[in-house]
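Milestone M4 deliverable, item 7.
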Amino acid sequence: MKINRAIVSVSNKDGLKDLIAALAEENIEIISSGGTHKHIVELGFQAIDISEFTDHPEMMNGRVKTLHPKVHAGILANRDEHMNELESMSYLPIDLIVVNLYPFAETLKSGKEFSEVIENIDIGGPTMIRAAAKNFKDVLVLSDPSQYEEFLSRKMEKTIDIDFRKRCAARVFELMSQYDNLIAGYLSENEKTNFIGTEHFKSPLQLRYGENPHQDAELFQYSYLSTKQVANADIIQGKALSFNNMVDADAAWQCVKSFQAPACVIVKHANPCGVACSDNSAEAYAKAFQTDPTSAFGGVISFNANVDHECVKKIIDNQFVEIILAPDFSDEALSLISTKPNVRVLKLDLEEEKPYPIDLKMISGGILIQDADQKMISIDEVEIVTKLKPSNEELNDLLFAWKVAKYVKSNAIVFAKNFQTIGVGAGQMSRVISTEIAAMKAKEFNLEANGAAMASDAFFPFRDGIDQAASVGIKTIIQPGGSMRDDEVIEAANEHGMAMVFTGVRHFRH
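Output delivered:
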């Protein structure tokens, strides 16, 4: 493919210097506009201003500059059919379009005023790259700086073939779909529309494997994250991550971030098997591990506070661990972890710019979309429905258990006392069976359920779950309420001398 003339107009100037240098070396005529033209000249290269090329000045504060027949005829001209017509108008063919769009997504994230956001809706850029993509047989379009390296390599090797041009054209329409959906979501004030298919992703990272070793898996990271989250965490050490590692890490991280005091969450198969708060990470870990040492083996451990040498020593002495996540680690802690080189160590930020507004789930023939479960409650919001009122200490245990239950697979039952999980029953088809499992876990590891709090992620459809809890000494219960048999359930709690509160909020987690 012979390139004689190129239009270059970019907001993202990454890699531009090397690209322009390569074009200038082959005496390719470069046409540019605005800030890009100024930048190219400052780099020491020659470029023709778009107004000089079209013989027409920019209009309306730059809103109209590339929207000119000379530009679009030069891009859209089919070299087999339209060259005589192009020549009759004294127009020139344009062979290469290097354009990326106004940073609409970044402008949204920066919280700019409506008028400024609207000004970052690109018109000329999309029109040029769409035209070039349509005419990819004759025109090459580079709409993403990540394409420059391959382009330069192919140019040097003279391998800019039809497949490469077609692939670059396809990228244009991918970008435009994202860009247009993002604008549509903003103007309609619809968060789901704003989110689906609109975020720009970095090139995918190959994971170790998928849910099972015979499955391949990739990780797509959002390009514009300003904080370190699970997908883009600083990986300090350890072997490659798998699909399950990422899922478990996220489950542990989301849960531990819901606590203010130093907390530890141990996750196994996407379920918290031990959670505790204490004065520091080492003590929180010891209490979380005590809940279920068997399930903790090979688990993922997350902290919301600094991890020190004492904490790491406890972990190494107690168990095999896949991943440790925390906002910070002491130098001594990292030195000790380095003696276990296969353990993955991830450093993240507790802050995030905005929780993602939706959850996605694939089903046969479609995709389910729902709002993310960001609902949190305070003690002041619960309704006490029994004759016996919980004490302040018991209310604290109830709220702790409730926070954990939100991250346990349904049907979820959590026993807790003194900011420590005592037993966890997860993922059962019957709520009473989940209650029996939580009690069994507490007994197995010699933890005292007597006087503990119990949280249920959804209402009790029958009183049998209350009766089962009472049989092991549970004294307080937190649950959503809303069953047709709430009166029977409340009466059961009263019979057993239990205090029970309703939240009015359900936390199913399938």
